[in-house]
Design goal:
Oligomer: single chain
EC number: 1.1.1.304
Structural class: alpha/beta
Order of helices and strands: EHEHHEHEHEHEHHEHH
Distance between the termini: 49 Å
Strand order of the largest sheet: 3-2-1-4-5-6-7
CATH class: Alpha Beta
InterPro entries: NAD(P)-bd_dom_sf, SDR_fam
Number of domains: 1
Protein name: Diacetyl reductase [(S)-acetoin forming]
Shape: globular
Helix content: 40-55%
Keywords: Oxidoreductase
Number of strands: 7
Largest sheet: 7 strands, parallel
CATH architecture: 3-Layer(aba) Sandwich
Enzyme class: oxidoreductase
CATH topology: Rossmann fold
Length: 261
């Protein structure tokens, strides 16, 4: 049975992805700090799916918490992990100087350092899966804000550029191990994360994606056998991705400035 470990699984995209993979017959590890919503998630699934669902506490900023969560889940998988989904992330929006330094740094701690720890500590379990089944993979949650730095999202955007770089490098580095590394790059998704988001970009572009749409993309990525690394989710993100590749840098900058004004 294939296995997936989901960080930030209690709500939003993480919850939708957990349910999507349970529906498909996978063994799912759903881990989060939010134990209240995790319990609600467990109560939502039927008894058969509950047998394939493992839940636990995970603080992605804590190395020991990561190790304990991975060890706990992989006790149910004969020590291997087919798919690590680094979904946990936070967002603070607004003019750069209006966001406290602690809040800015917390985005780096969760979105970058948390993902880094997940990749590093999951590697032995991924390698075991790759050796026994021929392949394993990591899917990182990036963002369309990693296409070009976004006003009012400066550090969030920077954190997702870091995710993009880690993804590209590890996909090359770990290919010899049989581990594929990819990232998902959606625009705004209808979750609590964007409820109070500040900035003209979200007002101009709107929120057109749902957690279920992202979950469907993650499921497709889990079975993908090609060489693609970055997955733009939704028509807007795909157009932005294409434009950034085909347009001169000054035009990309001008278009992003117009969107955010």
């Amino acid at each position: 049975m294939n296995s997936i470990f989901v960080s930030g699984a209690a709500a939003g995209i993480g919850k939708a992805t957990t349910l999507r993979f349970l529906d498909a017959g996978w063994l799912v590890g759903a881990y989060d700090l939010d134990q209240k919503n995790l319990k609600q998630l467990v109560a939502q699934v039927d008894e058969e799916k509950r047998q394939r669902l493992v839940t636990g506490t995970l603080d992605v900023t804590d190395e020991l918490s990561w190790q304990q969560a991975l060890d706990d889940f992989c006790q149910h998988t004969q020590g291997q992990l087919n798919l690590l989904y680094n979904n946990a992330g936070i967002l603070h929006s607004g003019p750069f100087e209006s966001i406290s330094l602690d809040a800015q740094q917390s985005m780096i701690d969760v979105n970058v350092k948390g993902l880094l720890a997940g990749c590093y500590l999951a590697l032995p379990f991924l390698e075991k899966a790759a050796n026994e089944s021929g392949s394993a993979r990591v899917i990182n949650m990036s963002s369309a804000s990693a296409i070009y730095g976004q006003p009012n999202l400066a550090i969030y955007s920077a954190s997702k550029f870091a995710v993009r770089g880690i993804t590209e490098a590890l996909d090359l580095e770990w290919s010899a191990k049989g581990i594929k590394v990819m990232d998902a790059m959606p625009l705004f998704v209808r979750t609590e994360m964007v409820t109070d988001m500040q900035g003209h970009t979200i007002q101009r572009l709107g929120v057109r994606l749902t957690p279920d749409m992202i979950a469907d993309t993650i499921y497709t990525m889990a079975h993908y056998r090609g060489s693609r690394v970055h997955w733009y989710v939704g028509r807007q993100a795909k157009l932005m991705g294409i434009a950034s590749k085909l347009s001169p840098s000054w035009l990309v900058r001008l278009s992003n400035k117009w969107i955010a004004r």
